[in-house]
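Fold it.
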Amino acid sequence: IVPSKHRKASTISDHFIAGFPNAILVHDCWKAQIATNAKGHQLCLAHLIRELNFFIELDKEKWSSQFKAMLQKAIKLKSTLHYSQDHSYEISNIEKECTNLLNQTIDFDNDKFKAFKKRMIKLSSYLFTFLHHEKVPADNNSSERAIRNVKVKQKVSCQFKTFEGAKYFAIIR
């Protein structure tokens, strides 16, 4: 844990100069995380599914339901994979389904939805990294649980009183 006054890419590059060349980062679609040098990236599917739930509730839009079902199918597939065997066919089918969905033209007049779809097209290569690597999860929930105590400390004490205090807390954690 490293304290910072902001969540910019410079925080990552200042504290992790080489980035994470031997790691696959599992993260939200935060620009600073995407820009971080790493062996690979995996978008947090739990975050994406929550966004899709919003679109489904908002307008019962069919595409959102299909995209959500496809992500859930990929998560379920992960639980059945034995990495000593070849699963390229099953993984390829999920990736093709994703490509087909992303190529669909949708007439849904919602700026947030349009931004979501555009982001998925741009970052589609980060959707199924977890299927290709045995130890990569589909979400960053375990990472978020690991830092939850820091967020609780911030909220209970109305933030850290000094930056030095934040640094000491990070060292202790």
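The two ends are 7 Å apart (CA to CA).
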